[in-house]
Design brief:
Blueprint: E1 2-13, E2 17-21, E3 31-41, E4 46-50, E5 57-63, E6 67-79, H1 86-89, H2 118-125, H3 131-145, E7 147-148, H4 159-165, E8 167-168, H5 170-183, E9 188-195, E10 204-211, E11 214-218, E12 229-235, E13 244-247, E14 250-261
Parallel strand pairs: 7-8
Antiparallel strand pairs: 1-6, 1-14, 2-5, 2-13, 3-6, 4-5, 9-10, 9-12, 10-11
Helix pairs in contact: 3-5, 4-5
């Protein structure tokens, strides 16, 4: 499946500022970048670097003087995915045998205070037998107990805040679900990407849980189809996968984001009728 992902972010820079952007699509074995284009206006020194595994791509831009600054990115991406048999998902991987790269996604993090949620998770999900069923139940619980409501949370809002307020945006839904998973010793990681026909258009956040040796995609907002996500990156939470980190002083002017299918026969499907769907964007 081919998708066109694109974004444009505009700022008014008030003093010399360093930006670190995370807007380029990730290069993995299941996600191939066919072509891409990046423009910044005006032109300033630009450096690309990657995370330790080489899949998450960052851009560092040093804007040396005040004034308007725009960054535009566009990519055509070919995605591959496979369906996982339910029986495979019944296998539990004990913490004692987890790969070293998975272990960090068990721990509490800045926005996912899983150590504070032990009583809640065992009350709500403790009687569920297998890991896949538990994560599915967590996803449904967050979807049913948190209202999607833009504008009431900010970059400081944590999973505990969302649990209290019971409202937020995709970032908040993901943080709460991740924290609940980790409280049950299920590795879970934050996912950010471009989403097919997301309304209103924006970057999208959801999460992946490590089940039966596979990273599986879950979206508590249920706003996007399982097979319509283009990965930008993963992290322990939004602190590791921020679209833009700003070191200086700026005013944000506007953002435009889109993701469209380039395949005429593309048929979006959602979690309700794709519960065995492996994330098309897993590290495989």
């Amino acid at each position: 499946m081919k998708f066109k992902a694109h974004s444009e972010i505009q700022y008014q820079v008030l003093m010399p500022t360093t930006f670190i952007f995370n807007i380029q699509v990730s290069k993995t074995s299941s996600q191939t970048v066919v072509e891409e284009k990046l423009d910044i206006d005006p032109s300033f020194p630009l450096e690309e670097f990657t995370s330790n595994n080489g899949e998450v791509r960052f851009l560092r831009v040093q804007v040396n003087k005040p004034g308007p600054f725009n960054i535009r990115y566009e990519a055509i991406v070919d995605l591959q995915y496979q369906v996982i048999d339910r029986q495979h998902l019944l296998k539990t991987v004990p913490v004692s045998t987890l790969d070293a790269g998975v272990i960090p996604y068990l721990f509490p993090s800045r926005y996912c205070q899983s150590d504070k949620l032990q009583e809640l998770v065992f009350k709500e999900f403790g009687k569920i037998d297998n890991t896949y069923a538990r994560v599915s139940a967590i996803t449904e619980w967050v979807h049913n107990n948190v209202t999607y409501k833009p504008g009431i949370t900010n970059s400081s809002t944590s999973a505990l805040d969302t649990l209290t307020e019971r409202a937020g945006v995709c970032r908040d839904f993901a943080h709460l679900a991740i924290a609940l998973c980790r409280a049950l010793s299920i590795p879970a990681r934050y996912f950010t990407g471009y989403a097919y026909n997301l309304n209103p258009p924006d970057f999208h956040a959801c999460f992946e849980a490590y089940i039966g040796g596979e990273w599986m995609f879950f979206d508590p907002t249920k706003l996007v189809p399982v097979n319509g996500l283009v990965k930008i990156g993963n992290g322990r939470d939004a602190a590791d996968a921020a679209v833009a980190s700003i070191f200086g002083k700026t005013n944000h002017i506007s953002i435009q984001v889109g993701c469209e299918s380039l395949d005429a026969g593309f048929k979006p499907f959602y979690v309700d009728n794709a519960t065995t769907q492996k994330s098309v964007l897993s590290y495989q």
